Amino acid sequence: MATTVSRADVSGTDPSSVSQLAASASSLGLPSATALVIGSIFGTAQNGQAAAKVAPTQAERLSGLLVRRGRLVRIAGILFHAEALDRLKREVVAMKAGGQTTVDIGTFKDRYGVSRKYAIPLLEYLDRERVTRRTLAGRLIL
User: Nearest to residue 138, comparing CAs of 97, 98, 95?
Assistant: First the structure.
């Protein structure tokens, strides 16, 4: 599903700021396709590459817009791409289908190549989404 962003969505932002936001979308952890979509709307991004640094307030404005549009999800103050979270949920469910009934922090970190800083919020997200449930021994895959 494509997300469309119009100039009205970033009203109050001057065009040069919008150009910088679109050009640096990849620095927000967005896939290059999203950066290209944003850039194509404003005619600024080239191959999803960041062309300029933006002020934190501008990055917050764009990230806020993408959170409202459902493209990004904020978990414990960290932004994750919604598609990546959906893929994570599917993979954890597939782990159960493959015979694995639990997942602990160490296994999760190793499997997905993330540090504890990201593993804990992601596992708590999976608990909230009812993909896993925290137990004394780790997390039970539901």
Answer: 95
Q: What is the CATH number of domain 82-141?
A: 1.10.10.10
Coil, helix or strand for 72? strand
Give the number of other Cβ atoms within 10 Å of residue 52's Cβ.
13
List the one residue out of 109, 80, 113, 108 whose CA is nearest residue 95. 108
CA neighbours within 13 Å on the CB side: how many for 123?
Answer: 24
Q: For the whole model, what pTM was predicted?
A: 0.63
Beta bridge partners of 78: 75
Report the alpha-carbon distance of residue 139 to residue 128 in Å, rounded: 12
Q: Dump pLDDT digits (tens) for 1-26.
A: 334 343 344 434 444 444 444 444 44
What sign does the CA torsion over 46, 47, 51, 55 have? Answer: positive
